[in-house]
Amino acid sequence: MKRLGLLLIAMMIGTAVHAGSNSMNIEDTVVKMKIADDITMDDAVSSMKLRANLRNMKLVAELPLSKQIESMGKEARRMEIFQFCDPLTAQRMVEANINFAAYLPCRIALVEDQDGKGWLVMMNLDIMIKGATLSPELKSKAIEVRDALNDIIQAGANGDL
User: Fold this and answer.
1) 19, 33, 64, 92: least surrounded by Cβ within 10 Å?
2) What is the pLDDT of residue 6?
3) What does the longest C-alpha to C-alpha distance in the chain come to?
4) How would you label 14-28 residue by residue, b for 16+ Cβ within 10 Å and e otherwise?
């Protein structure tokens, strides 16, 4: 489990990780979806919030990073982090292994690219689910959270309500 934690931390900060003769690119550790051309970034955010509510995922924090950068006198393309959580599952995961606390809550980033297009990006939870030692019940809960987050990011990218 310690190796998994170190691997995920290294991947999250954007470094290539070498495990024996294998390497992993940061692109392989995320789920990334372009927001549809006819969907505004604000509409994508609204869709994610609505879908999260339907999936019983709590929006526990919003971090407007680009606004923080602008308040420091710098120009910034839009960048916001939305943190979603299933609090009861989170509690059970941390009770099973305190190291899971480092991955809470689950995050979806809204990022504006250099062409003004919006993207939604989140960690690929399959990596954690496959690499962690979980009871069958906790693994099932982790899969439910992964599926809910995939549904949230897809709703945002497509503007679904």
Assistant:
1) 19
2) 41
3) 50
4) eeebeeeeeebeeee
